Amino acid sequence: MPVEAGHRFPEKTVTLDPWRVGLYVEALGVAPEEGWAPEPGNPVPPGFLMYVTMYGADAVHDSFHIDFRKAVYGGMDAEFFAPIRVGDTLTVAPFVSNHFTKSGSRGDLTFVELTTEYRLPDGTLAARERSTTIQRG
Amino acid sequence: MTDPTPTTPPPLTTPEISRMRLAYMAVAMRDPNPVHVDDEFAKDIGLPSVIAHGTFAVSYVGAAVSRHVGVDNLRRLKVDLTAPVFPGSVLTTEVTVRGTEGDLVVADVRAVGADGTEVARGEVAWVAGS
Asked: What b/e sequence results for A38-55 when a residue is b if at least 16 CB atoms lie within 10 Å of its CB, and e otherwise?
C-alpha cells in the first residue's frame, strides 16, 4: 500500500554543501543575486530547497510507488521565514500533506502533495516547501 | 510598513537551457528521473526528447525576484508547471505586481518560451520596501 496523507518520513540532517549549491547555480546559469558566490554564509537560492535535493527522492518516491513513466512534477509552493545560508545544517522533515485520486475521462490521476519543513539547528522553522507530483493511473 | 509604490522585478531572460545544464542539474539535485537525461526513455513515454527539470522554471522565477529584492526578502515562491521545457529553450520571466498585503508585496509570475508558450505560472511575495 502506498503511504497515506499524514505519513511522516524520518527526519534527516543535511548540510548545505557549497559545491553542490554552486553546481545547481552553474546549471541554471543565473545567480540568485548579483555577484553571488557559492561560499559559506551566502544566501541559499530559494529554488534549491526541494525535497529531491534536500532529502533524497528515492525513499519518498518508493513510498508513493512513483513510476517515472507515468508521473510529472506539478510544481512547488515555498514559504521562507528565516535566512538560510550556504553551509548551514538543516533538519529536513517531509510529510504527506495530501494524497488523492481524481477520475477523469482519460483515467485516474493520483496527486501526491509532499510538504517539507526546514529547521535551523536552534529549531527555528526557516522554510516550508510543498511539492506536488501527479501520476496517471 | 507598506511600500505604496512597489517596484517590479524586470523580466529575466535565461541562458539557453542546454543538455549540459540538464546534466549538471541532475547531479546537483541528485534527481534520479531518467526523463531529464535519457532520450530513449523520454521517447518511450511519448516525448520528443528529454525535458528540463521543473527546477529550472521554478528557480528562474525565484531568481528574477531575488535578484531584484534580495534572497532574504523573498517570502513566498509558488510556481505551477504548465508545459514541458525542452533542451535549447530560452525562457523569459514576467512579474506583475498585484498589490500589498500587510507588509508584503504580492505579485503574479509567469515564465514563457521564445514562442510565447507559458511553461510556468504562480505567485510570489516579498517584503515591501526591499
From this structure: beeebbbbbbbbbbbbbb
